[in-house]
């Protein structure tokens, strides 16, 4: 099977009504705005964004941003009309408007080979005549030796490597050109995360054996999980892996090619706190004949 490269475009929303969402496209042109026909569609009441605010057009292996709005489009804080985008660029649609991060990744697409007729069958070959089988020697019973215990793989060495790493956490987007990168609460870390579940020196991301890895720096606590599985010392990362730094967060999605985007958990709805069974006072109450009495009992329960 032949393979040809295909470029996938990713839009990571870091500020605005779609914050936390990650959209992926392979279209040659991406429309952005409030119009329902846009690929990246913002709410209708967000009037700071035009109906068709901007578009991203693929030209060869590059992507060009073209502004078509009345309030302007900003790339890395600078207003622009047309510009070729790079991985990690931050786009803002109107001043103070929604912000997104622009990323790309290269995938392989299979191409069906041209049909070739199957080879003609070969004529059958006559089997040689069977020879008489000599009597077998007496079987010698040997003592059974237990198999050796499985060896524990040695930890992968952490070395300085010039490969990119992009981390998005809340409104913060940092790009690193060299690994390893240490993450934690301490100001001495490369990427500081102020979160109750994160220790001073919590995790380390590095590159080895053509893979990105995460190393648990919490010692015997073993707080880091990959797809809900505990990381003993260190573990490789695959595309779309969920990396959780502690049982109470934060959580990230590894998008491949050295990109980590925060996964925002949706808060529980208010209706979850309302008890599903009636309160004891309601079970003891007899059915009231008047609507006013029934209404007063329900009012007391919901006021609790």
Overview of the molecule:
This protein has 304 residues and is mainly beta. It is 6% helix and 37% strand. It has two helices and 23 strands. Strands 13-12-23-22-21-18-19 form a seven-stranded mixed sheet, with no helix packed on it. A hairpin with a 2-residue loop joins strand 5 and strand 6 (62-67). The longest helix is centred in the C-terminal third of the chain and has 13 residues, at 291-303. The radius of gyration is 30 Å and the shape is flat. Residues 268-304 have low confidence and may be disordered.
Our estimate of the beta-strand percent is: 35-45%
Strand order of the largest sheet: 13-12-23-22-21-18-19
Radius of gyration: 30 Å
Reading the helices and strands in chain order gives EEEEEEEEEEEEEEEEEEEEEEEHH
- Ranges where pLDDT stays below 50 over 5 or more residues in a row are 268-304
Major sheet size, sense and barrel closure: 7 strands, mixed
Determine the N-to-C terminus distance.
Answer: 66 Å
Number of helices: 2
Report the mean per-residue pLDDT as an integer: 79
Shape: flat
Beta strand count: 23
Describe the structure using short key phrases.
six-stranded antiparallel β-sheet; seven-stranded mixed β-sheet; flat; mainly beta; disordered C terminus; 304 residues
Put the structure in a nutshell:
It is built from two helices and 23 strands. It is mainly β and 304 residues long. A hairpin with a 6-residue loop joins strand 21 (241-244) and strand 22 (251-254).
């Amino acid at each position: 099977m032949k393979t040809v490269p295909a470029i996938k475009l990713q839009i990571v929303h870091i500020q605005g009504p779609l914050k936390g969402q990650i959209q992926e496209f392979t279209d040659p042109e991406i429309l952005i705005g409030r119009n329902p026909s846009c690929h990246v569609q913002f709410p209708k009441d967000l009037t700071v964004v035009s109906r068709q605010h901007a578009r991203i057009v693929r030209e060869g292996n590059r992507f060009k941003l073209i502004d078509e709005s009345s309030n302007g489009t900003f790339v890395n804080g600078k207003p622009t009309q047309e510009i070729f985008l790079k991985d990690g660029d931050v786009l803002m649609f109107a001043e103070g408007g929604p912000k997104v991060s622009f990323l790309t990744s290269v995938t392989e697409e299979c191409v069906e080979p041209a049909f070739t007729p199957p080879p003609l069958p070969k004529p059958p070959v006559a089997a040689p005549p069977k020879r008489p089988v000599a009597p077998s020697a007496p079987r010698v019973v040997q003592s059974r030796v237990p198999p050796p215990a499985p060896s524990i793989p040695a930890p992968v060495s952490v070395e300085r490597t010039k490969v990119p790493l992009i981390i998005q956490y809340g409104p913060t987007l940092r790009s690193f050109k060299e690994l390893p990168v240490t993450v934690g609460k301490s100001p001495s870390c490369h990427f500081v995360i102020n979160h109750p579940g994160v220790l001073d020196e919590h995790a380390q991301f590095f590159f080895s054996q053509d893979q990105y890895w995460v190393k648990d720096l919490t010692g015997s606590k073993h707080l880091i999980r990959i797809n809900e599985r505990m990381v003993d010392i260190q573990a490789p990362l695959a595309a779309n892996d969920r990396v959780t730094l502690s049982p109470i967060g934060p959580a990230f999605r590894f998008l491949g090619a050295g990109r980590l985007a925060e996964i925002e958990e949706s808060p529980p709805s208010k209706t979850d706190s309302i008890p599903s069974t009636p309160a004891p006072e309601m079970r003891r109450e007899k059915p009231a004949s008047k609507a006013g009495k029934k209404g007063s009992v329900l009012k007391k329960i919901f006021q609790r």
